[in-house]
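hiii so um. not sure if this is the right channel but i have a protein structure encoded as tokens and i wanna go backwards to a sequence. like what aa goes where. can anyone help
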């Protein structure tokens, strides 16, 4: 991996190229103001790259669809701060894969030291990651996975989404048993996340694998609520219009759960302890944990967004020329009314 010395040499080479590009911009290639603006940004990056003091990271985030996502972005910004030796270039892709690809290409052309990104969906990354590989820029995948050859990325930091889905189903098994309802027919609907994302694929698979062993669990329907409160509510309203006898809602993130609970309450029903519908959620953000405590959500399967420190750690290792693992799985818990009190106060997101 590149050390600071090598980076300095490379910076000197690209300085010449960028100075040439800027000179050309003065020859009518760009408008004067744009050139001046861009010139300012490039000057800043050049200064940093030349000094070799800061590690330049290009970060492509999916968007800001959920409370979880905002916490995840903050975690990266906190860890990859100037004080910690980084110059962080960030881009919010606003839920579009093409925006992520554009951002990654721009980081490649700026010859950043590392690219960190959370792939919105698993498919469709081969070409751009091949370009990063050809440019010699290490790619660190975060949160979600990309379905590509392992040689196209250096490492992945994230959570075990399939395990999260399994944990949800295991909790339901146990709960029905405790209530003496394990033989009863149970009607389930699933509010899914972004189609084709690791979080949607993993949580669906994990839950359905366990459900397959329970012939009395009827999965009535599964539809995407795009990981947002508004869409979660809309899809829950559709489920309620279509099915009279829903026993369990499996909602693949807290934001959709907030929307689903609104829809259920507006329909005159209640979720959670002593209610009409069992509510299973994922993420475990503070507002949702408060609902676990008050009994509106039965169980919240944690998805831990605090992944920035792992990225910092991995980059540190790479800078020192140390070997890194191909995957780092972030630890997580399962929250119910019984244990949530211990964690609620310290939850910052
Ligand atoms: O990939 C992680 C998921 O993405 C979180 O569960 C969800 O809230 C987010 O938008």
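sure thing!! here u go:
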């Amino acid at each position: 991996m590149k050390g600071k010395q090598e980076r300095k040499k490379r910076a000197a080479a690209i300085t010449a190229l960028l100075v040439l590009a800027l000179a050309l911009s003065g020859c009518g290639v760009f408008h004067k103001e744009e050139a001046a603006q861009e010139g300012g940004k490039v000057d800043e990056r050049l200064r940093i790259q030349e000094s070799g003091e800061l590690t330049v990271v290009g970060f492509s985030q999916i968007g800001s669809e959920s409370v979880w996502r905002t916490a995840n972005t903050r975690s990266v910004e906190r860890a990859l701060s100037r004080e910690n030796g980084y110059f962080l270039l960030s881009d919010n892709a606003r839920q579009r894969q093409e925006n992520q690809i554009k951002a990654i290409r721009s980081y490649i052309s700026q010859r950043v030291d590392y690219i960190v990104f959370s792939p919105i969906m698993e498919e469709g990354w081969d070409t751009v990651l091949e370009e990063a590989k050809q440019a010699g820029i290490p790619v660190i995948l975060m949160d979600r996975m990309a379905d590509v050859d392992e040689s196209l990325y250096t490492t992945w930091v994230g959570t075990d989404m399939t395990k999260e889905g399994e944990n949800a189903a295991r909790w339901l098994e146990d709960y029905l048993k405790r209530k003496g309802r394990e033989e009863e027919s149970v009607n389930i609907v699933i509010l899914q996340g972004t189609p084709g994302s690791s979080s949607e694929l993993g949580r669906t698979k994990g839950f359905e694998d366990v459900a397959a062993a329970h012939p009395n669990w009827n999965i009535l329907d599964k539809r995407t609520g795009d990981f947002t409160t508004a869409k979660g509510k809309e899809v829950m309203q559709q489920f309620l219009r279509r099915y009279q006898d829903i026993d369990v809602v499996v909602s693949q993130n807290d934001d959709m759960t907030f929307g689903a609970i609104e829809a259920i309450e507006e329909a005159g029903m209640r979720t959670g302890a002593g209610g009409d519908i069992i509510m299973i959620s994922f993420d475990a953000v503070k507002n949702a944990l408060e609902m676990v405590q008050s009994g509106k959500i039965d169980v919240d399967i944690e998805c831990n967004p605090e992944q920035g420190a792992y990225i910092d750690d991995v980059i540190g290792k790479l800078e020192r020329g140390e070997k890194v693992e191909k995957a780092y799985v972030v630890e997580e818990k399962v929250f119910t009314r019984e244990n949530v009190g211990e964690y609620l106060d310290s939850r910052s997101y």
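oh and Confidence is low (pLDDT under 50) at residues 12-35.
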